[in-house]
Amino acid sequence: MTEEYKPPALPSPFTNTTPAPTLLVQGAEAHLYKTVSLDPSIPAALKVRPSKPYRHPILDRRLTRQRIIQEARCLVKLVREGVSVPAVLAMDWEGQGGEESAWGGAWLMMEWIEGPVVRVVLEQWEAWMKKHATALDASQMPMEEDRVRGLMKRIGLTIGGLHKAGVVHGDLTTSNLMLRSPAQGQRQETGLAASAVSMEGEVVLIDFGLAAQSTQDEDRAVDLYVLERAIGSTHPRSEQFFDSVLLGYRESHKGAGSTLKRLEDVRMRGRKRSMIG
Ligand SMILES: Nc1ncnc2c1ncn2[C@@H]1O[C@H](COP(=O)(O)OP(=O)(O)OP(=O)(O)O)[C@@H](O)[C@H]1O
Ligand SMILES: [Mg+2]
């Protein structure tokens, strides 16, 4: 017998929002809704961290609160520094309301980024290549590869901007990178691309739940390494273009060279660890 899925209770005031927020993603830690902010024509992303019933209520409240405040603090700082992240619109960490009297959770409302996550873009591109690569002519293949290289380079530039601002992400995967779709009429890509998977748009970093303030080469290099491993395991056909991430990164700020040197050590340790098992 399957029970009908019931999403967790929304915190107040979102129980009264019309139209009701729609649940997009339910992770282990957070639920992501699409809703509106002030005006029904302004879309917004609502990240809710429900309380964890198995934790002691006082500890739980403190941890939930800490993480959402940490995330909001990073976003506010990064927007100010001109790094491409969603702006913070509102938040609450008191954990009042909802349908349960002692809700205990916290939420963060931010700017809605219209566009796909990079994971989906690369998945679509790889699927397309798998099917059509043999039919591409001599000029189309390098052009397709150049588009991926271009995307990778922009990712590297964006991560470099983040690090330059004194923040490390802590969980760089292709699900935590989005591509903000250009406004209608602003599209640059010509009809020349064979695969029709668009790679246009500004790279936007999301999900700062594990981010930290740091300017250490080690922390920065680990950020890059985590992304390298994530791309290697999720997007095997795109892994060969990861070098372009580092190319963009190198151009992004003055300290990049020493971080990239450190990345060699981090990779070495990673290899040793996987040899031991
Ligand atoms: N500002 C936004 N605009 C549009 N979509 C978003 C936005 N923020 C998140 N999303 C979508 O929701 C998904 C989940 O968001 P996010 O990565 O922040 O949560 P999470 O991975 O569950 O969080 P955590 O790892 O902190 O527990 C993203 O992969 C993306 O598809
Ligand atoms: Mg995420």
From TrEMBL:
The lineage of its organism: Eukaryota, Fungi, Dikarya, Ascomycota, Pezizomycotina. It catalyses: L-threonyl-[protein] + ATP = O-phospho-L-threonyl-[protein] + ADP + H(+); L-seryl-[protein] + ATP = O-phospho-L-seryl-[protein] + ADP + H(+). InterPro entries: Bud32 (IPR022495), Kinase-like_dom_sf (IPR011009), Prot_kinase_dom (IPR000719), Tyr_kinase_AS (IPR008266). This is EKC/KEOPS complex subunit BUD32. Residues 18-277 form the Protein kinase domain. GO terms for molecular function: ATP binding; hydrolase activity; protein serine/threonine kinase activity. Component of the EKC/KEOPS complex that is required for the formation of a threonylcarbamoyl group on adenosine at position 37 (t(6)A37) in tRNAs that read codons beginning with adenine. The complex is probably involved in the transfer of the threonylcarbamoyl moiety of threonylcarbamoyl-AMP (TC-AMP) to the N6 group of A37. BUD32 has ATPase activity in the context of the EKC/KEOPS complex and likely plays a supporting role to the catalytic subunit KAE1. The EKC/KEOPS complex also promotes both telomere uncapping and telomere elongation. It comes from the Eukaryota. GO terms for cellular component: chromosome, telomeric region; cytosol; EKC/KEOPS complex; nucleus. Keywords: Activator, ATP-binding, Chromosome, Cytoplasm, Hydrolase, Kinase, Nucleotide-binding, Nucleus, Phosphoprotein, Serine/threonine-protein kinase, Telomere, Transcription, Transcription regulation, Transferase, tRNA processing.
